[in-house]
Write the structure tokens for this entry.
Amino acid sequence: MKAADQTGVHFVDMASASADRDACRPTGQRWIEPFNGAINADPVHPNAAGETAMATQTLSHLGIDDA
């Protein structure tokens, strides 16, 4: 966050929104895919739910309606 403040960019904190959404959670709850058993092509990366959540959080932070 300090680097964002120093460079004039926005920092979107996903910590509270992503609580209990880690790769160890079951399919449908997790936003990050595990290394083994990933449902998408990129393990240890956000899945569709995680990407959607990040986009929604970012739009909200910027005051943009996601409709």
